[in-house]
Structure formats: structure tokens, C-alpha cells
Design brief:
Blueprint (H helix, E strand, L loop, with lengths): L1 H56 L3 E9 L2 E9 L2 E10 L13 H17 L5 E12 L2 E7 L7
Parallel strand pairs: 3-4
Antiparallel strand pairs: 1-2, 2-3, 4-5
């Protein structure tokens, strides 16, 4: 009976060690993913600020940032003369997987149009609405900024 008991104790200890090792790996993976997401968010925030600075240099006035309606978030609402520019900012650390503007999907466009329709109606605006994309790609220590006016059609 003692040899069976000893065998079971050793097997249990081995299982515990294995579980602890797996737990450590899971924690390391979780930490890594958390760090990657933090860097991703930092890049996104940096991109939005670069876009705002760029738009201001082009003579636009920022009307609203990060406007939310339902499931949509409009990054920037800007105005220049009688045009209300709805600006989606896409920032990427590299263009290896495609241009930033290629990551605006039809469902997102649908949500943006709905949000902007609500914004225009609630604020009783009589303006021409234009949907733009500002595509930002990190290049070395700097960034390449491309402003795509009338990036997609609406209403």
C-alpha cells in the first residue's frame, strides 16, 4: 500500500509542477499580449493626434473628437467653410500587411454613416458632409500622412 501511495504522491506532484509551468506560460503570454495591446493603443492615440495637427494645418476647425453613437465612433469631425469632414484615422506601424485605409470595412462605414446622420440631425446642421480617411504609416522615426478626401460615399 505504501508504494502505491508514494506513486500517487509523486504523480500528483508532477501534475502540480506541470500546471504551475503552464500557468507561468499563460501569465507570460498574457503579459506579452497586454504589452502589445498597450503599444497598439499608444500608436493609435499618436496617429489621432498627428491627424488632428495635420487637419488644423490644412485650415480645418476641429468640431468634435471621438464622437460616439450606438456602436460607432467617429475619430474626428472637422469643418472647413461649408464642409463637415468626417475623418476616420487609420494608423499602422508598417504597410507590410496593406495600406491603413484598406482596414476600413463596410460594416464600419455603415456605422459611421448612421452616427453622422444622427449628429447632423441632432445638431440641425445644413452642411455638405464628406467622409475622409487619414492614413498614417510609421516610417523609420517619422510618419507618412495621407489624407484621402471623399474616401467613401454616404446617404
Amino acid at each position: 500500500m505504501t508504494s502505491l501511495w508514494l506513486f500517487l504522491k509523486i504523480r500528483l506532484l508532477k501534475l502540480l509542477v506541470k500546471a504551475i509551468k503552464k500557468s507561468t506560460i499563460i501569465n507570460e503570454i498574457s503579459t506579452f499580449v497586454g504589452n502589445v495591446m498597450a503599444q497598439h493603443n499608444e500608436l493609435g492615440n499618436k496617429g489621432e493626434q498627428l491627424a488632428v495637427d495635420y487637419i488644423l494645418q490644412q485650415g480645418y476647425a476641429i468640431v468634435e473628437r471621438n464622437y460616439r453613437f450606438d456602436k460607432a465612433e467617429v475619430d474626428i469631425i472637422a469643418k472647413k467653410e461649408d464642409i463637415l469632414a468626417i475623418i476616420e484615422v487609420k494608423t499602422r506601424s508598417t504597410s507590410d500587411f496593406g495600406n491603413p485605409q484598406d482596414f476600413v470595412k463596410p460594416k464600419q462605414i455603415q456605422r459611421l454613416v448612421k452616427a453622422v446622420d444622427e449628429y447632423v440631425n441632432v445638431n440641425d446642421l445644413d452642411v455638405e458632409v464628406r467622409f475622409d480617411i487619414i492614413a498614417i504609416t510609421k516610417e523609420g522615426k517619422g510618419f507618412n500622412i495621407e489624407h484621402l478626401e471623399n474616401a467613401f460615399y454616404h446617404f
